[in-house]
Design brief:
By secondary structure, the protein is α/β, with parallel strands linked by helices. The chain is 45% helix and 15% strand. The chain contains twelve helices and ten strands. The protein is globular and about 60 Å long.
Length: 298
């Protein structure tokens, strides 16, 4: 059984998928399987993948029907046999030491369900383990440490299965990270392990254009804070709600400044907020707050 199951979901990525696969095969840590699941691509993606299938560590599956991004992520996880899940999006890259660093860090902190490589400040020496209360405080009263894409993470397979995987809606990565962090510790890993490629074909670009990610993101974070199992205390939760709403309203305010007033007001209405809220919460928000104090294990 491999230590890591690398999961690559694919849909029409002929320009990028070859480089993504090669970045996996170049890893210095080699005890992995690479599971590629194609979601009915209509370009040359499948023929490019075929060139790599001589490597016995690669398993390729093609869905009978197009099921979409997050359902396909869950589908890929069903094929996995590893102790850890490592998503590598088919238009991203991981650098040669990525798996080695991620696996050794997770093994060092066996209670952690999730590891995230994030370009944070020099405040801590990574890797560093955060309890549920600590990571929620850092997320909502500090530097948004859980706002990262799947390629930057490594996940304990058993905890992924316990939580039921991705929710299969937009921004479900954030929802999953927050759900895992409610009950298990999280390891912040050093930065520079992955490359999140940004390009015009990304779904994220479509979401930005449609502005629907703002509403969904607000709902995800408020749901996490309103959950009965939220690890924050009452006072911290109240501040966190204000900060989340204030961050949302800053984005709305920026839309207005950029001349997109109609979309901004529509987003306010969908969030059940008024123009008065736009200024009152904006002024009361304390984000960014401060880094939490945490004793590091040496």
């Amino acid at each position: 059984m491999p230590v890591v199951s690398i999961l690559m979901t694919v849909y029409n990525r002929e320009k990028f998928v070859g480089a993504a696969i090669e970045s996996v095969l170049a890893q210095t840590f080699t005890d992995f399987e690479l599971i590629i699941v194609d979601d009915c691509s209509t370009d040359l993606t499948e023929s490019i993948i075929d060139h790599y299938l001589d490597d016995q560590r690669i398993k390729f599956y093609r869905n009978e029907d197009n099921i979409g991004d997050y359902p396909n992520r869950n589908q890929a996880a069903r094929y996995a046999a590893g102790k850890y899940l490592k998503y590598v999006d088919s238009d991203d890259l991981i650098y040669p030491e990525c798996l080695k660093v991620m696996v050794s860090s997770m093994e060092r902190f066996p209670n952690a369900a999730l590891g995230i490589s994030k370009a944070i400040s020099d405040y801590w020496q990574c890797p560093i383990e955060f309890t549920p209360n600590q990571i929620y405080r850092e997320q909502y009263l500090g530097t948004l440490s859980l706002d990262n894409a799947p390629t930057s993470t490594i996940i304990r397979t058993d905890h992924f299965q316990e939580i039921g995987g991705f929710d299969e809606r937009r921004a479900s990565d954030s929802r999953l990270w927050l759900s895992l962090a409610q009950y298990h510790s999280v390891v912040l890993l050093e930065s520079g392990l992955t490359w999140w490629r940004q390009h015009s074909e990304q779904q994220n670009e479509l979401y930005k254009t449609m502005r629907v990610d703002l509403i969904e993101g607000l709902k995800i974070h408020l749901d996490a804070l309103n959950n009965a199992d939220c690890p924050l205390g009452a006072r911290e939760t109240k501040i966190a709600r204000t900060n989340v709403t204030g961050t949302f309203l800053r984005k709305i305010f920026k839309m207005m400044l950029n001349g997109d007033r109609r979309t901004a007001l529509n987003a306010l209405n969908k969030a059940s907020l008024s123009r008065k809220d736009l200024f009152s919460i904006f002024l009361r928000s304390q984000w960014p707050y401060k880094h939490i104090e945490i004793e590091q294990q040496r």
